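Structural prep section.
Before we set up the soaks we want a predicted structure of the protein with manganese (II) ion in place, mainly to decide which crystallisation condition to try first. Input record follows.
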Amino acid sequence: MADAPRTAKAVRAVVHGAVQGIGFRDATLRCARELGVSGWVKNRDDRTVQVHAEGAGPAVEKLLAFLRAGPPLARVEQIETEATAVEGHEQFAIRGVSAGVFVVQEHAATAHHFDLRLEVEGVMRSWAIPKGPSLDPAVKRLAVEVGDHSISHNTFEGTLDHGAVIVWDRGTYEQGGRVAWPEALTRGHAVFVLRGEKLRGGFALQRTHKGAKPQWLLIKRRDDDAQPGSDIVLERPESVISGLPLDELERRGNQGAG
Ligand code: MN
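Run finished without errors. Recording the tokens verbatim:
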């Protein structure tokens, strides 16, 4: 990062021992913030704790000393460290924890689209995506920012005056990236991990035009959940609530009304 001090260093550490389920991540977060160290801490599936720490050399060394000792209830057996590149993190965060819910509603409005909604500070921040999301990292999908919705709208499916709606996907999500949320959205670059039934793994929203209807691009990040060449909206058209695709729900709705 251009603005990182020349003395900044970055270290990746893996802590082995009895280190999960005893407040290790919270204690590391507090220590890092006191020291002015940025980066992240997360529990790994192999029961270790992994830390990315960057900042002034002496502060990073103090955090590593804290990790070697561990918080009171931990029993640290071994710590592996390796120098890594400074990534420009502006916060120290716990990774791998849910930040709230997300939903994607397919909407047969005048212009058919998918609404991606992410829970941020008690409301659902929303983007209308004409072609829908993709799991192919080579695909960039236009996402037009629209008004916030209430969380209670997340489970809505049915027929409205302005078209039918199905809940196409839903789950929880994790905030990621180098900048804390919602600041990341304000700045126009937000990275997050979805844990839905269809959409999984890392995504980025990148704002390309500001204005009354800000335009963003939704892009799948390259990770184990990426599916190059796939088109998930064609492959999985069904509602995750009813199992019916949108056109079928619309047809039944019209029959009921007639
Ligand atoms: Mn809509």
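Observations: Helices lie at 24-35, 57-69, 183-187, 232-235, 246-257.
Flagged for discussion at group meeting.
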